[in-house]
Write a structure and sequence with these properties.
2 copies of one chain form a homodimer. Chain A is an all-alpha fold. Chain A has 15 helices and 2 strands. Chain A has one domain: Farnesyl Diphosphate Synthase, CATH 1.10.600.
Chain lengths: 299, 299
């Protein structure tokens, strides 16, 4: 377990360096009146975050010996979508957060208008990356990656889940509705990251069942762990404000299940996620380590 | 000229009906806690607006005998991007507008959080439409359409232009900078609409020069006409607040050129746009009518 943790830390660091270097190229100061727009994007996207979604792209693509440059750009697109969603979710009209990844949020470090536009730009950039022939030479693969990401981030995925999350402050949801909300809000993009690795590996949709099962269970486990962290974590380590769900009186896995059953459910989902990988050999050890990390993480 | 105006009106109405019927399918009430998100998208996207960008897709695709269903979906994607940008531009942190297309803006009719998410969702939906095999069977065409739209709407296009527009309230731009700002803010998406028609027509990039020239001149003429409308138009007809540029003390074509020279420049650009179409026969009459309409429009 100690070795795996070490490997995972090394893998996370490597992916962070890889994605950061690509973002630094894309988001270089244009030297014109858009300077603060680009600075805002760099502030939000470079040098922070767990980089879980890009790592999932790499860890899945590794199963199929995919070219690392292709994988790097696709991982960067996934992270760009994730960062855009964080910028918009942090806005005063949404979750109204001041800190993110241990730094002031974009609308605090810059202003609201710049934050809205920086999010919009990262959103468009993700699709520009995926549609570029230099990312992948096969237009069929590019088109499949884009469909995967657009569905996962739109009204039936991440943004739709965020809307349900806003509604959760106005009405009390039951467990199936909370599960669906979280599957959309966080799970869909985690699934899209794994799916992107499989698309890059040219796995046909019918061959992706086990990987989808892994991603689905991982996404839910991740969200329960997030709820536990929100209730029990330390703000200094998490790098963001905690105890928000309770303040807002929102129904969460935690409020519906209680701490003990939530923790148990999280462990069960992680084991189930790992079990989906039984047909893979040591090449899937990184995916297994990611699942194990989810229950243990402190941020 | 009277006939052309009549044809144009008929074409605009037909495109509006076509795009509205597709949007009605995509944005149907999901019957779950996302109801108001979908209502907000329908409020902004259906039954309003000039539909200039979708019409440009249709008018260009008509030159090459493209399948109308393909064209309709691509036109809908262009309109979805345009509407998302209007929703976000109208937000209090941006242009802070209460009226749009003769109706309350989304954040007025719903709330700010819903407006941000409705914009984000239309943004993602545009790419989902373009990446769907049912929109176009050839992944190369889909991928080219997506690259076209992502570039035109991102930091080097529409959103970057909007950022420059915000900066224009803080610094005084000269004519070349205002031209670049407007080319990005409004011109890029108008160019993308024409380019999309050419991509659907399978015109190779080197064969698109004249159409690009047309779109470029049309975009600038459109913006100058918009400036004139902002200064001289009637709010009731325009369906939105006017005289904003002057209040904000922004450098515009109008403030830099004066009314007479601006009007002259607009006419010159329209003639130049039409001149780019000289190699095309009557099949390009709709594109010519659109250019002529730009100088005459009252909203």
């Amino acid at each position: 377990m100690a070795t795996t943790t070490l490997d995972l830390r090394a893998a996370l660091d490597e992916v962070a360096r890889d994605v950061d270097s690509r973002l630094a190229i894309l988001l270089a100061d244009p030297g014109d009146p858009r300077t603060s727009l680009y600075a805002a994007m760099r502030h939000a996207a470079i040098g922070g975050g767990k980089r879980l979604r890009p790592l999932l792209v790499f860890a899945t693509a590794r199963l199929f010996d995919v070219d690392r440059t292709c994988t790097g750009w696709v991982a960067t697109a996934l992270e760009a979508i994730h960062v855009y969603s964080l910028i918009h979710d942090d806005l005063p009209a949404m979750d109204d957060d001041d800190m993110r990844r241990g730094k002031p949020t974009v609308h605090k470090a810059f202003d609201e208008a710049t934050a809205i536009l920086a999010g919009d730009c990262l959103h468009a950039l993700a699709f520009e990356i995926l549609a570029s022939p230099s990312t992948h030479p096969d237009p069929f693969v590019r088109s499949e990656l884009i469909l995967d990401l657009a569905r996962a981030s739109g009204p039936s995925g991440m943004a739709g889940g965020q809307m349900m999350d806003l509604e959760a402050e106005r009405q009390v949801f039951d467990l199936p509705t909370v599960t669906r909300l979280q599957q959309m809000k966080t799970g869909a993009l985690i699934c899209a990251a794994v799916e992107a690795g499989a698309i890059l590996g040219r796995v046909a949709p019918e061959g992706r069942t086990h990987l989808r099962g892994y991603a689905h269970d991982l996404g839910l486990a991740f969200q329960i762990a997030d709820d536990l962290l929100d209730a029990e974590g330390e703000e200094a380590i998490a790098g963001k404000r905690l105890r928000k769900d309770k303040e807002a009186g929102k129904a969460t896995f935690l409020s519906l299940l209680g701490v003990e059953r939530a923790r148990e459910q999280c462990r069960m989902l992680v084991n189930q996620a790992i079990e989906h990988l039984r047909d893979y050999g040591p090449e899937a050890d990184l995916l297994r380590a990611i699942a194990a990390y989810v229950v243990e993480r402190d941020r």
